Amino acid sequence: MGPLNGIRVVEFTGIGPAPMAGMLLADLGASVIRLDRPAAADAMNAGAGGPHMSEGRTVLPADLKSDGGRALARDLVARADVLLEGFRPGVMERLGLGPDTCLGLNPRLVYARVTGWGQDGPLARAAGHDMNYISVNGALHAIGREGGPPVPPINLLGDFAGGTMFAVTGVLGALVERQSSGRGQVVDAAMVDGSALLMSMVHEDRARGSWNDERGTNYLDTGAPWYDVYECADGRHVSVGCIEPQFYAAFLEGTGLAGEDLPDQWDRSGWPRLRERFAEVLRTRTRDEWGEVFDGVDACVMPVLSLEEAPDHPHVRARGSLVRDGGRVIPGPAPRFDRTPGGVTRGRRQPDADETLREWGLDR
User: Of 42, 129, 205, 313, which one is the catalytic site residue?
Assistant: First the structure.
């Protein structure tokens, strides 16, 4: 049933981080009702594909610009534990569904807002996307190779790590605090804040003098030759992350470099020489041949698998981290719970709206 069984969430449809937060809360067992535009909701209930990460939870049509749509939203809010929205600041207030109104209806409500820039500040109402949020807080500057431009990490860092995960953390924290206070509160999850916090270790290293502001020159950003990705004989790649001395020694042994007169691992002046030798040797075999060499060896060397290959890796398959279902790949639940395991909402039949409404004490 999941650890959030019994928790009710009303989700106002959006894109990116907010739907993923709704998905994760549903995976953890919460009863989630998504409010969407009537045409989109009706199409999805008829079997059409919905927005990203919107599967497996009840969707109701609601025109929030109409009296009826707002009345439905208020009825749900009055019965919910959590409200989740990802609009720009001011939108919910203009709809008559801002925090003051909703907490007035339901003082125990956790009102979670996930945006790029947050609810205040000079950019609060500006448009933006993942790479914009991680641009102004320095995170994007730090990602890339020496001498090259910053490389956007898809939209993992700003949208989902900095936005979704901190929104869910805020929701869970507020639910725990409510047990003692009996009161809900507003959670302001901003991607610019969350992704900045994820850079904590880098900022600590800069303060200690062990991290340069020039990307691609540090020990975790491909600056160090023993923490990088290398091409193999077949054009595919392996990841090498042998930071600790025992793992580094095992890497040298596996590549046949243990007997060579090489620079010390942490001698930065010798890094170009190490990189050259590592690249030469790793190009002598295919990716899968290196996988066999390092299978069972603690050298922190792994094959870089494609999205198509990854579900078939023995560990990924054993954990159910990725599963194949009807011709698609679906990520498994995370984290795992031993007594109250969650489930996966992706690929699941759309819940019956009438049944969900009855569980919430409502009907059509």
Answer: 129
- pLDDT string in tens for the chain (364-residue length): 899 999 999 999 888 999 999 999 999 999 999 999 999 888 888 888 888 999 989 999 999 999 999 999 999 999 999 999 999 999 999 999 999 999 999 999 999 999 999 999 999 999 999 999 999 999 999 999 999 999 999 999 999 999 999 999 999 999 999 999 999 999 999 999 999 999 999 999 999 999 999 999 999 999 999 999 999 999 999 999 999 999 999 999 999 999 999 999 999 999 999 999 999 999 999 999 999 999 999 999 999 999 999 999 999 999 999 999 988 999 999 999 999 998 998 887 788 889 999 999 998 7
- Residues 227-312: name the CATH superfamily: formyl-coa transferase, domain 3 (3.30.1540.10)
Torsion, CA 125, CA 129, CA 134, CA 137, rounded to 10:
-10
Structure tokens, 38 = 């009537």
What tokens were used for 292?
């066999």
Q: Is 141 a catalytic residue?
A: no
Domain boundaries, the chain: 8-198+334-359, 227-312
DSSP 269: G
Is 129 catalytic? The answer is yes
Chain mean position to CA 353? 28
Its CATH architecture, for the domain 8-198+334-359, is 3-Layer(aba) Sandwich (3.40)
Catalytic annotation, pick one of 159, 188, 221, 228: 159
Determine how many CB atoms are found less than 10 A away from the CB of residue 267.
11
